[in-house]
Specification:
Blueprint lengths: L11 H12 L6 E2 L11 E2 L12 H9 L9 H25 L11 H15 L14 H17 L6 H30 L11
Antiparallel strand pairs: 1-2
Helix pairs in contact: 4-5, 4-6, 5-6
Length: about 200
């Protein structure tokens, strides 16, 4: 019988690593110390720095998911648009007042109007304003979103409101949150009530 042919295992990863090392000579190569009987030795280049959050695949996926926003308007464009908007709004008010002479000048929209709008929306979503004899329609999830929007408004305007504006916002936010707590407590109690026993004679 012929002797078993001798063969040599070539670790191609070594050659690939050496090629990368030659192409990037500015980075010193780091070699692992050989271990006795460990077989082929792999030469590893210096590890590349981790990608920044903006370069990570997750960040790229998030950027692809969100639509690209157009560039912000310039100050001149915003100024011209505001002038055109005010003119169109005034012409509309003149038309309405011509058809309704008894209607007075409409007040300018203020921060209190914005807070009041959120308050009315949240209360209607929690069933307020239903006519007598009608079952109130409750949108509890929509009410939560509206209340959370009031919370965002309070967070973003902190330190930039007058004392009266801040008092109005905090009072409205407290009231709608209390109404939400009462309503969710009622919903939980109704959902946890045991079924009513059948009337006598109908078992």
């Amino acid at each position: 019988m012929s002797e078993t042919p001798k063969f040599e295992v070539i670790d191609r990863r070594k050659f690939k690593a050496e090629e990368e090392q030659e192409s990037n000579a500015s980075r010193p190569a780091v070699s692992t110390p050989p271990e006795p009987g460990a077989g082929p030795r792999l030469v590893v280049s210096e590890p590349k720095p981790e990608p920044t959050p903006a370069e990570s695949p997750a960040a790229e996926a998030g950027q692809e998911a969100m639509p690209e926003m157009p560039p912000a308007p310039t100050a001149e464009e915003s100024r011209e648009q505001k002038i055109a908007y005010d003119g169109a709004a005034q012409r509309l008010e003149d038309i309405v007042r011509a058809q309704n002479p008894a209607m007075g000048q409409q007040p300018k929209i203020s921060f209190e109007h914005l807070v009041q709008q959120f308050y009315v929306s949240a209360m209607i979503q929690m069933g307020a304003g239903a006519q007598d004899g009608q079952r109130p329609r409750v949108d509890i999830l929509g009410a939560r979103n509206t209340i959370d929007l009031l919370g965002v408004l309070a967070e973003k305007t902190r330190g930039n409101l007058t004392e009266a504006e801040d008092r109005t916002l905090q009072t409205v936010l407290f009231e709608v949150r209390m109404a939400f707590l009462e309503l969710t407590s009622m919903i939980s109690m109704q959902g946890m009530q045991p079924p009513m026993p059948p009337p006598p004679g109908k078992r």
